[in-house]
Amino acid sequence: MAITVHIRKQLKDFELKVDFDLESGCMGLLGASGCGKSMTLKCIAGIETPDSGRITLNGRVLFDSGRKINVSPQKRKVGYLFQQYALFPHMTVRQNVEAGLSGTGKKFSSRQEKNEYITGLLEQFHIPELADALPGRLSGGQQQRVALARIIASDPDILLLDEPFSALDSYLREQLLQEMKGMLGSTYQKDVLMVSHSRDEIYQMCPRMAIMCPGGIEIAGSTKELFRNPVTVGAARLTGCKNLSRAEILSDHELYAADWGVRLHVADVITEGVTYVGLRAHDFAVMREIGEVERDNDFWLENERKGNVMRCTLERITEAPFEIYLILRNVSSENLSAKPDLQPIWWKLSKKEWEEMQEKIPEAIYFPSEKLILLKEEIR
Hints:
The chain is of the alpha+beta class. It folds into 2 domains: 3-230, 3-Layer(aba) Sandwich (Rossmann fold), CATH 3.40.50; 241-380, no CATH class. Helix content is 25%, strand content 31%. A 6-stranded mixed sheet has the order 7-8-9-3-10-11, with helices on both faces. Helix 2 (93-99) runs parallel beside helix 4 (140-153) and helix 3 (111-124) crosses helix 4. The longest helix is centred in the middle third of the chain and has 17 residues, at 170-186. The relative contact order is 0.12.
């Protein structure tokens, strides 16, 4: 199984340029609202038409502007799960699933065999008791299962998931994400392309991902690797990196974080094009080695010159049910007031870690060199 997408389409605010190849498996498109994720899926499904380019699925050409090929949506063998599921409101659950069979050419020897096939799908998606219900009586999770069963009945070569969990509350979203992951692995063992603005959903569902900015794909690759090393500033933001600073390069392994006012040693060699440095909010450490040493200005100046240490003051605390965010500002040894021209640092702690610190704000935080992320503004 394989899909290739190389298309251009002029939208209201920008030209959408999408280029990617998926050999097999599940791939996620991660991006903010309005960046072109859903439009990309609609072009693949044939609901929208690109201005130019080419789309192929398993060797079949679905769209080719140069050869004037544009296969109708009904003949593309593409399953599209809409955000609101798009069930037929006047049809029962069984009738909705049966509607997925139309156009597949699937033959049954009898009506009984067809009914047994549909019943089997209802059982696979844990909804047989809802067979005679209308969509208006179903919960969001039940509607999603019906919509998936209808798509699987159509036997698509690829499944497109358009923000499949956006209409669900947080508890149901977590439950159905795990259910869908299991069902796709057992019931539908073909390719899946999923769009979302949730990095957690993409990370859990998709071994591969592409990060989209307004206008197209910024970078693509292994999901885990892109979270570890997002490469670009835009990708770092979309994968949840809260701390980003402009970087002034000092040597192969040293830079000055201009927005934090901190000199940093980094583990990786600083390559050409690096203009930013990032650190995820959970990757800081307390400067524990201070011990009982006299904390005068000479002590702090010496440690700040060594690098990776920031003397700090608390700006505010933000509390979540299970986590604490400390928003900290740099307090240099030369000037013990916080510098308003510098950006604050976000440090994320579990409540257990916060209790172990006896809920005390540290005098200084440490930037682990192996956790620092070197970033470019864009890939050239």
